[in-house]
């Protein structure tokens, strides 16, 4: 999978498509999913051109990696789903490639919470 500059997240970052921004910093943007799968469903994306988590982890600068992860922590805290704040927890999901059922070729992390999330993968 190669990076596509016309993917929906690239277009959101360029301001071509509106979003419900939750938080952002110099390196990442967090916004509410338009088709939430839980009471809290937020996407966190880097502002750089990374296709997947492994691409981001291998090629992003230290500042980008730190900024992304700090924004995740800020969102979890602000949404009240973090354990440190007395929340009941959350699930963080990222998909990569065909087997991971990745739909958008821009690395993104789903933060889901506000209810029990059930099993991660079915045993079937």
UniProtKB/TrEMBL annotation:
Gene3D superfamilies: HIT-like
Highest taxon listed in the record's lineage: Bacteria
Any Pfam family the entry gives: HIT
Motif segment (Histidine triad motif): 106-110
GO molecular function: catalytic activity
Domain HIT span(s) in chain numbering: 8-124
Database matches in InterPro entries: Histidine_triad_CS, Histidine_triad_HIT, HIT-like, HIT-like_sf
Active-site residues per Swiss-Prot or TrEMBL entry: 108
Protein name: Histidine triad protein
Species the sequence originates in: Paracoccus sphaerophysae
